[in-house]
Design goal:
The protein is an all-alpha fold. It has four helices and no strands. The chain has helices at residues 25-42, 48-66, 75-97, 114-155. Helix 1 (25-42) runs antiparallel to helix 2, helix 1 (25-42) runs parallel beside helix 3 (75-97) and helix 2 (48-66) packs parallel to helix 4. It is elongated and about 75 Å long.
Amino acid sequence: MAWFRRSQPAAPSPTAPVADPGDSPEALRAAIGSVNRMINASAGRLPLRAVVAARRITDVLAEIVDTSEIRPLDVYATISVRGAVGDYLPTTLRTYLAVDEDLVDVPRPSGSTPTRSLLEQLDALEGSAVAVLQATQAQDVDALMTQGSFLRTKFSGSDLDL
């Protein structure tokens, strides 16, 4: 009598989320390298301070990615690095490079110049990158402290020992 029963649709099989290959340390390093090439190629049109600031940012981002050699990057660090190299830093630089060279040091109604605005934006990006690096390093310290507590508990004498 099985042919009289309504067949139940097969339940979808659960699948594990697939990691985005763009999130791998190798892909993040490649993206950082791409931004460095963009900075170097544009160095003649960017203020020297901006070139130095932009390269400091990519250096900090590389330090963040390098922490993945100790343990996997957390999602916050991955998103932060990806956003910085995939959007924020290149967009900031491209926007400045689109400004006519005769206008980069002309004050706008706000009183700021495009050059000053560029440097302020780069300072903000660097501050954000440094904060992510510090948070990543703090997690490493927390992990070390947790491991130390575990080892002390595991291998120290117990109060129950006679």
